[in-house]
Design brief:
0% of the residues lie in helices and 46% in strands. The chain is mostly beta strands. Strands 17, 18, 19, 20 and 21 form a 5-stranded antiparallel beta sheet that branches. A 4-stranded antiparallel beta sheet has the order 1-30-29-28, with no helix packed on it. It is globular. The chain contains no helices and 30 strands. A hairpin with a 7-residue loop joins β3 and β4.
Length: 386
């Protein structure tokens, strides 16, 4: 298993938005509390076809760390059903929630000792009951993605001294033991993220805190063997990479830095299968409104709509640390105007995660820097995002 380095997020105060800058319109939703447990951390969410949010998070305990599942139907403002799942050892990585067909799949990593590994916990009845947890692999997930049309989960780790690795793990077969060291040659990798070109061929992107890189599987040979992957290619001076995949293709979200401190911008780049490369960057956040942006997630729903979310760090228009959202109804080719999803998180908006149904409606969830309370806010349907 790759050796993981724990990195503390460093936060600094940033300047307020330029005087007189118009704040993006608020979409009208208000956050609600998933749990008040201060030991809860790193919530994740997937949204099913009915718009129900399926949430999961880890809980720090003095002994074994449990995994908690919570179901929130569209229109509700609290967990309507909650389950605590016992797992051994200490939680590492990011717990994940995936929709694999109609099944709800929870992914969580536990380390270190007997029983360590990456677990899958599967529900075939919408989260009412779950099968016993089973180890499917060994990669500590920074991101997990369902391989379209299969029962395979693709895993990529996050902060790794030896370089990011990729692992394809079956939900029904033997646990995966091999992995593809796709980040070989880079001294330390961050932000491992997965996309699927043509929804069949995995590609992995990562950065070294200065520049971004990506590699694609050749389509032949063992996907868990790096020898079957293409060459590492540059994404330029981009960091905080995150990819989303859906019926409209692959979209990469990343941060572009400018020359002076606390001046950066989130951008989007579409993968172009005809050229086998990423298209030029399109700005998502506006430096006229927010010149310090942190955290992010991007998600493509089954309707091909793309939702990108981030925190506008610092004080903006008299409100503290709002969550912004930018939506594309065309798979990331064109984008609607920037909007405000949450008007103030009061410096408790960390580790954003998003999910949505085919109509664009869903949820964003977040914590207070690896600590509870945990929050969620609804994303309105695309037709209601005026």
């Amino acid at each position: 298993m790759p050796r993981i380095v724990i990195v503390l997020a460093l936060f600094c105060l940033s300047a307020a938005a330029p005087a007189g800058a118009a704040q993006p319109r608020w979409l009208g939703g208000k956050p609600f509390k998933l749990t008040a447990d201060h030991n809860a951390k790193k919530p994740n969410v997937a949204v099913d076809a009915a718009g129900t949010g399926h949430f999961a998070w880890d809980v720090n305990r003095s002994g074994d760390d449990p995994l908690v599942y919570c179901r929130v139907p569209r229109g509700a403002r609290a967990c309507q059903h909650q389950t605590t799942i016992s797992l051994p050892l200490e939680s590492f990585g990011e717990p994940q929630v995936l929709m694999v067909g109609t099944a709800v799949v929870l992914i969580a990593h536990r380390c270190c000792g007997p029983g360590e590994g990456t677990y899958a916990v599967v529900s075939t009845d919408g989260g009412t009951t779950f099968a016993a947890p089973r180890v499917i692999g060994g990669i500590e997930p920074g991101q997990a993605v369902a391989w379209p049309g299969t029962d395979v989960v693709a895993l990529a780790d996050d902060v790794v001294t030896a370089g990011v690795s990729f692992q394809a793990a079956s939900l029904s077969g033997l646990p995966a033991t091999a992995s593809a060291h796709v980040g070989e040659g880079v001294s330390q990798d961050y932000d491992g993220t997965i996309g699927f070109a043509g929804q069949t061929t995995p590609l992995v992107a990562f950065d070294d805190l200065h520049h971004g890189f990506w590699r694609m599987w050749s389509g032949a040979g063992d996907v868990n063997d790096v020898a079957s992957w293409g060459q590492t290619q540059s994404l330029g001076a981009l960091t905080e990479l995150r990819m989303a995949t859906g019926p409209a293709g692959v979209v990469l979200m990343a941060k572009r830095h400018f020359s002076h401190p606390f001046s950066d911008q989130y951008v989007a780049r579409r993968y172009d299968p005809t050229t086998g490369s990423f298209k030029p960057a399109v700005a998502l956040s506006s430096t006229a409104v927010e010149d310090d942006v942190i955290f992010r997630d991007v998600f493509e729903d089954p309707g091909g709509h793309v939702e990108a979310v981030w925190i506008a760090n610092g004080t903006h228009g008299g409100r503290t640390d709002p969550i912004r959202i930018r939506v594309s109804g065309h798979g990331g080719t064109t984008w609607r105007a920037e909007r405000t999803l949450v008007r103030a998180t009061h410096d408790t908006g960390f580790n954003l995660q998003a999910g949505a149904a085919a109509d664009g409606g869903g949820f964003v969830t977040y914590d207070g820097n690896d600590a509870g309370p945990l929050w969620a806010v609804p994303i309105p349907k695309l037709s209601a995002q005026h």
